[in-house]
Amino acid sequence: MKKRIAAIAMAGVTLVSVIATSPGANAVSNASWSSGKVTRAVLWENYNGGHKLTVLGTGNCTASTSDADTVMSWMGDRGWNDVVSGAQDFAGCDVDLFTNLGYGGVSTGYVNYGQNIGYVGASLNDRASSFKIS
Ligand SMILES: [Ca+2]
Ligand SMILES: [Ca+2]
Prior knowledge:
alpha+beta, Gamma-B Crystallin, domain 1, binds calcium ion
């Protein structure tokens, strides 16, 4: 009886670790990107919350969107490939999400989400692999 319980427990651990490391719609943990003390944007696992990826910078974004202020070419570096469903932006920043790494594929264009979490839309939901903040 004891042996059977141990086998079940081990199987459970294996299953959990497979789910946690597989790519998909849900992030495994909070993360941040780049450096600085100013929060420029917060990207969310769900359209209404969940885990978050905080995008930091050294100051406000510039008024122009022709010069990106913070970029991330591969969100998989933080375990966030194909995860984001919601976004907020601060410090004069807007968010441009791309379905492929290296700012490729389909993109939203710069969106001013503001301080309430906004849905990224069906074309980018659980598909973002890179982003620009400006
Ligand atoms: Ca998601
Ligand atoms: Ca993608």
